[in-house]
Amino acid sequence: MILFDHHTQFVTVTCLNWLPVLKKDLHKDILLESFRKRVREEAVSIYAFVIMPNHFHAIWQLHDGIKKHEFQRDLLKFTSRSILGFMKMHDDPLLAQLEVKDRDRRYQVWERNALSMDMYSEAFFQQKFDYLHNNPVHPKWKLTTLPEDYKYSSASFYMTGQDDFGFLQHYDG
Known about the structure:
The protein is an alpha+beta fold.
């Protein structure tokens, strides 16, 4: 990992009320494009991720000069607007369940206060790294039998060394 002022973080972001907003590949692709954009802008290094039907996990490190709350706000705001736009265009029945009665919005995709933990030790990093990649094979999900076969995860990158996403950085540097 590159040395920045920020620690590497394990992040979990859940969809409102754990709804399966990310079940559709198109919605997952919006999140991937947002990751790609932020890496191109040199705001973040992304070491690992998995996108599940109702949440995502990432291990990333913000670059110097990037404020954590602004980075997360902008990422979630962009993805939320894009996902909601597609849902409205396609009359997605899930949209009604995302309706909220807040002053500043009619719909909400993400739960507030995403979980973000600084990673201070190699053991903690490895535990979260393994957890993240094994999420799709967990009996609760059964999205695939092997972590590296799940399309919306960085597991295959670590098995093959090939970055099909265009934004991953190996945690070894």
